[in-house]
Amino acid sequence: MNAPAGWSRREGTLARPLALSGHGLHTGRRVNVRILPADADGPRGIVFRRKQGADVLAELAVSPALRRGQPLCTMLESANGIRVRTVEHLLASLLTCEIDRATVELDAEEVPILDGSAQPWIEAIRACGRIELPHAKRFIRVLRPVKIADGEGTRDERSISIEPSSAYEMAVHNDLKGFGALRWDGAVTPASFAEEIAPSRSYGRVKWAIPAILAGYVRGMPILRGARLSCTAAIVGNRVLGGMRVPDEFVRHRVLDLVGDMAMAGAPLLGRVTALRPSHEMNYRLVAELLATRDAWEWAEFPA
Fold this sequence. Notes:
Elements lengths: L9 E5 L3 E6 L6 E8 L7 E8 L2 E7 L5 E2 L6 E3 L5 E3 L2 H9 L4 E6 L12 H10 L1 E7 L1 E5 L3 E5 L7 E7 L3 E9 L3 E8 L2 H8 L5 E3 H14 L13 E4 L2 E2 L8 H14 L6 E8 L3 H13 L4 E5 L3
Parallel strand pairs: 4-9, 11-19, 14-19, 16-17
Antiparallel strand pairs: 1-10, 2-3, 3-9, 4-5, 6-7, 7-8, 11-20, 12-13, 13-19, 14-15, 17-18
Pfam families: LpxC
Family: Belongs to the LpxC family.
GO cellular component, one term: membrane
């Protein structure tokens, strides 16, 4: 079998360290991030390293086993309670820029939201460059369908499934009152992600945001404290303040989040994901169920 079109056959890492700063969407806190290249002999995958000054609080290797449920984001938590919040945009960017091994250092709990999309990450990673490592790139080949569904047959049905395919593909359906039914269907490759998906921003209705922020304070849980017009596609009525950045921006952002959440599997997929009204929780349930169903997948390599 040939390697999937558009992807490299060897693993890669950054050619030089990357540094970015910003604020968290949910905590609102300032955070500095450094992404460090990996050694060829180091561990596979992406590792988050929480730091406080010179002290390392925890290292979290990306895995569904460390995922903890949080509203409106994907969060990882170590055994000693150290958290890294809102990892999905960065994970999607690293996966599709084919940075297979790296360490992400943060001096606060939340990855910065930047402009609400993955585009700043893509641009920064590309500016640093990629170097190949002497390891064959690994993919997760899906062998049989896996499906998660809630409310089947009802108006509020949500579902997400994956089935075998020779490429990484997604068909995502979403709807939003005032904007109708939205759909994105295509192959996920480094090029298609950067051009079609990465520019799409986090979005929400202004009338939902204020109650959510207040509820978060009451519950002691940070929700949207850092939301600003500069990092969110804000919806008022049937329009987006300042307009949409790309066509069907809302469903494309669902694809962005889905790529980032599925990246917790540790490699690009050879499978077709079909999702109806996906959420972070549904995305997590699918990747966790896939990996737990050992006869539903296998590692695949395509040596040069």
